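Exercise 7b. Backbone tokens:
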């Protein structure tokens, strides 16, 4: 149903048909962890004996960076293998690093605990990498390396995530 309603509108505003259909498909799949549908989250809550809505919200927070990916297709069709081999490789690597950085910012953990300024830096670097331009990719990689070196200096790479239970 979504493909017949949303995809033609995206194509009419100039989005490539492959990108438009994959955008719709991706969000349909992501509904498995998004409240109120969240079938996978509700199943996980039933198996674990936990609160269904709490599990859905937790899965949404963990998967938050994944909701950016379909929008990346608009800016970088190379993510869908449209372009030269070099362009596809560059965009795939920098987009993956950008999603990793965004996930680190959301989870407040980047090779050690990440305070507010570190999280803001991670978000900025992630946005540069996610955008997909060559110069923004370079800027995002510089930010990532700088933040990594800062974290290594502060925590020495030996910090362990807290366990619950």
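Sequence design result:
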């Amino acid at each position: 149903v979504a493909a017949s309603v949303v995809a033609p509108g995206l194509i009419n505003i100039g989005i490539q048909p492959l990108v438009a259909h994959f955008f719709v498909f991706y969000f349909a799949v992501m509904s498995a962890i998004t409240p109120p549908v969240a079938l996978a989250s509700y199943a996980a809550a039933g198996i674990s004996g936990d609160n269904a809505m709490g599990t859905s919200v937790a899965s949404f927070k963990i998967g938050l960076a994944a909701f950016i990916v379909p929008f990346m297709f608009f800016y970088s069709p190379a993510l869908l293998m449209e372009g030269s081999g070099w362009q596809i490789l560059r965009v795939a690597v920098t987009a993956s690093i950008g999603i990793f950085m965004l996930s680190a910012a959301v989870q407040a953990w980047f090779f050690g605990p990440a305070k507010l300024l570190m999280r803001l830096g991670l978000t900025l670097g992630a946005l540069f990498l996610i955008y997909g331009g060559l110069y923004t990719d370079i800027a995002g990689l510089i930010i990532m390396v700088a933040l990594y070196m800062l974290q290594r200096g502060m925590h020495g790479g030996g910090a362990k995530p807290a366990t619950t239970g």
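Instructor comment: DSSP finds eight helices and no strands in the chain. Residues 68-160 form one domain.
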